[in-house]
Amino acid sequence: MIVEIITPDKVVFEGEANLVRLPGIDGSFEILDHHAPLVSILGEGEIKVIDPKKKEQIIPVNGGVIEVANNHVKILAE
After folding, report:
1. How many whole angstroms separate alpha carbon 61 and alpha carbon 28?
2. How confident is the model at residue 35 (pLDDT cuts 50, 70, 90)?
3. pLDDT tens across 58-72, in order?
4. Residue 19: how many CB atoms within 10 A of its CB?
5. CB 6 within 8 A of CB 65
6. The pLDDT value given to residue 71
7. Rounded to an integer, what distance in angstroms lies between the CA atom of residue 56 and that of residue 37?
8. How many domains does the chain have?
């Protein structure tokens, strides 16, 4: 799946990923390849992205929103 993580200042991550773990306002959740469409609010915590080569990237966030559609994940983070 294609993942974009954007803050007000810059694009933090853009590329392929197999898994994205996110801090939801009611607890953490994961997005996998070909996930069903989803819109959700994020809480404070860390976004964990695992790419196809199993490399992990951790991105701290203070909140935001996520949209999943057509195997494309867009995250607008604070």
Report:
1. 13
2. very high
3. 999 999 999 999 999
4. 16
5. no
6. 96
7. 24
8. 1
- List phi, psi (to 5°) of 74: -115, 125
Instruction: Supply the range of the domain harboring residue 70.
Output: 2-77
Residue 59 CB partners (closer than 8 Å, separation 6+) = 5, 12, 13, 46, 47, 48, 49, 77
Q: What is the pLDDT of residue 58?
A: 97
In the numeric block, which tokens belong to residue 23? Answer: 């801090």
Under 8 Å between Cβ of 64 and 42: yes
Tell me the CATH number at 44. Answer: 2.60.15.10
Report the percent of the chain where pLDDT is more than 70: 100
